[in-house]
Amino acid sequence: MPRWRRNGGVPVRGQHDDRRPAAPGPRLDAAGLGAELGARATLVQFSSAFCAPCRATRRVLDEVAGMVPGVVHVEIDAEARLELVRALGVLKTPTVFVLDAGGRVVRRAVGQPRKADVIAALGEAV
Question: Which segments carry the region annotation Disordered (predicted)?
Fold first, then answer.
């Protein structure tokens, strides 16, 4: 089960005894993703060709995007978009980012997520 992190991995206030507010997560736009953002949120999945959990993740994210109005699922081939992989610190596939309507990363997870976890993570974005 993946562990969802806030703000693209930036520590949340109170972690590591750091009293500074958490920095906002990175922001992605349609040009950077190569696809339009959802009106309410976007589920961005980094996959690789021979990754079995990536196929299962695709099904879960497609299902959730179909259930929640204004949410879209964008799948990115990690090997084809190495510049974006490096910029976002993607180390394994599948890696899933939840973006708000403005393209700000509000959550990220590595591994195959459960549908309930994706829906819960979307709650922070919408």
Answer: 1-28
Where do the domains of the chain lie, and which CATH numbers do they carry? 5-125 (3.40.30.10)
**Predicted structure pTM score:** 0.81
Please state the rounded mean pLDDT for residues 20-36: 76
* Contact criterion met (CB below 8 Å) for 97 and 105: yes
Q: How does pLDDT run across 68-126, given as a tens digit for each residue?
A: 999 999 999 999 999 999 999 999 999 999 999 999 999 999 999 999 999 999 988 88
Rounded distance between C-alpha atoms, residue 40 and residue 48, angstroms: 27
Tokens 């500074």 sit at which residue? 20
